[in-house]
Structure formats: structure tokens, C-alpha cells
Amino acid sequence: MLHRAAHERAWSKGETVQQSEHGSYLTDLHTDRPHPARIYDYWLGGKDNFAPDRQAAEHAISASADIPAAARENRAFLRRAVQLAAQAGVRQFVDIGAGLPSPGNVHQVAQSIDPDARVAYVDNDPIVLTHGRALLADNRTTTVLTGDVRELDELFERPELAALIDLGQPVAVLLLAVLHFVTDEEAREAVRRVRERVAPGSYLLLSHSTHEGNPERAAEVAKTWDKTTSGIRLRTRTQVADLFDGWELLEPGVDFVPLWRAEGPTEASTRWMYAGVGRKS
Ligand SMILES: C[S@@+](CC[C@H](N)C(=O)[O-])C[C@H]1O[C@@H](n2cnc3c(N)ncnc32)[C@H](O)[C@@H]1O
């Protein structure tokens, strides 16, 4: 159920929203086909997924049993990278392609360092809006917006974003496990627009799927997204590093997610995703 403001925002974004006979607002979540947010939620042990999502998620696991571990290691990278930005003094975060709420959300990590840290969660899947709103209902330092990584100019102009995030001050923008859902040109354009909009001292936190660590299994795992609207584009380390063009790429550069500033041995040390952090000087 969506309250009226969320309904109107979803409606203005062209999502399918219906008013039920009881007067509540329902978003058509297209539960008949798998969605990236819900597939990922299943791997992380969440409950916000439907049969087609579970079927797609299980396909990936049957092709490579370490996929859920890769998702968990990506969440661990999120924690390390958000801590890095917060310890450098950043107090505002924009998490684009945020996904469904999961333990160790950005605001929980950032606010463990400063309770006043502000976080805007953005995703183009309406289920994220519904669940995020419920989770964050009482939190005046966070917001959840529908928005698309391919339309960042529109996002950065939104009054709801400006109400929480001051783009004149450093901000950490997260693009974690999302750019593999868009074309090469759209991915390059997204990071370019972020760099143009954010203040010096801002950070880009990025992770991205790759075939390079598992060349023999990658094609089968990639079929997981065949029935989703986006599909998936696995990229090389060089292609991911190129996305940091114009940013100061912090040590150790682009590396496999569990190796990026590892704090110790990880559960599986998977090789499905690259990670990197850039700073705008
Ligand atoms: C694999 S999840 C990653 C969630 C979180 N960023 C993380 O790394 O833990 C990918 C998320 O990106 C969202 N997404 C996919 N395409 C998008 C787009 N074009 N714009 C915004 N979000 C998108 C999906 O709905 C999903 O929630």
C-alpha cells in the first residue's frame, strides 16, 4: 500500500498505480516476472520476493553456488566504503539502485559514525519505495525516492532530494551493483553526471558484476536476468576502471569486491564483482 504522496510521485513517474475499492493505493509490482531487486533480496535471505524472482535466483545458484556469498560480500564492501567516506567527513549519501532494505543499510552504517548523517535512497523499482518508506517512516534523516540512474539530471533537480542533500557540500554517491543493468553509454553518462553535480571532496562508491573471475560459468549465471526488463552486462576490470575517468581512484584501484581493502579473510572470496572508490578533487 502506498500513501497518497507516494502514489502521486509514482504516478508522475509513469508507474502503474491503482486505487483499491478500500481507497488505498496499490502499485503494480509486476510480480509475474523476476526483478533485480527481488532476486538480490532472495540471495541475501530476504522475504520480499515472489516465485519468478526465486526461480531466477535459484538458476544462478545452480550455475554457481557462491552467488549468495557474492551478494553478502557486496554488502560488506558497502559497509567498508560508506565508513571510509564517513570517516573522511562526508555526512550525506545518495544510494542509487539502493535495492530493498537489508541489514547494514547505508544510513545504519553512516549514522553509527554520525547520527545526523543524511541518506537518500533511490531506485527505479516501486517495491523499493514501498518497503523503504515503511522502514524509514520515522527517520527524519533519510528519504526514499523513485528515480533512474539513466535520468540523473532529473533526480538532482528533485526538491525532495534538495530537502535532504546539499549538493554544495561533499556527498558520497553509491552506484553499487546497478550499472551492469544499463548500456556502456548510459553507465559512462551516469558517472559523468554525478561528477558534474557533486562538490569537490565528494566520493563515488561503485561495484559492478564481471565475467572475468569465472569465465566458464558466467554465461549461465547471466541467464538469471534474461526475463527481467534490464538483462545484465558483465564488464571487464578495464571497463569498470574507465568509469572512474575524471575521479581520483583511491587505493587499491578497482579490485574484486572481497579484496577491496579486505579486513581479513572473507567467507568465500568470490570473484563475481569489481569494486572501487573515487574522490572528486
Ligand atoms: C543488485 S541490486 C543492488 C542493491 C544495492 N545497491 C547493493 O549493492 O546492495 C540492484 C538494484 O538496482 C536497481 N536498478 C536496476 N536498474 C536501475 C536503474 N536503471 N535505475 C535505478 N535503479 C535501478 C534494482 O531495482 C535493484 O534494486
List keywords for this structure.
281 residues, alpha/beta, Rossmann fold, 8-stranded mixed β-sheet, 11 helices, 10 strands, binds S-adenosylmethionine
CATH third-level topology: Rossmann fold
**Count of alpha and pi helical runs:** 11
Mass-distribution shape: globular
The fraction of residues assigned to DSSP E strands is 15-25%
User: How helix-rich are the residues, as a percent range?
Assistant: 25-40%
Going by CATH, the homologous superfamily would be: Vaccinia Virus protein VP39
Q: Given the helix and strand composition, which structural class is it?
A: alpha/beta
> Which molecules other than protein and nucleic acid are bound?
S-adenosylmethionine
Distance between the termini: 43 Å
| H and E string | HEEHHHEHEHEHHEHEHHEEE
Sheet with the most strands?
Answer: 8 strands, mixed
Runs in which pLDDT lies below 50 for 5 or more consecutive residues are 1-26
Specify Rg, calculated over alpha carbons: 18 Å
Q: Give the quaternary arrangement of the chains.
A: single chain
How would you describe the overall organization of this protein?
- This protein has eleven helices and ten strands.
- By secondary structure, the chain is of the alpha/beta class.
- The protein has a single domain, classed as Vaccinia Virus protein VP39 (Rossmann fold, 3-Layer(aba) Sandwich), CATH 3.40.50.150.
- The strands form two sheets. Strands 3, 4, 5, 6, 7, 8, 9 and 10 form an eight-stranded mixed β-sheet that branches.
- Helix 5 (about 105-115) links the parallel strand 3 (about 90-95) and strand 4 (about 120-125).
- Helix 2 packs across helix 3 and helix 4 (about 65-85) packs parallel to helix 5.
- Mean pLDDT is about 90; it is low at about 1-25.
- S-adenosylmethionine (SAM) binds near residues 97, 128, 176 and 181.
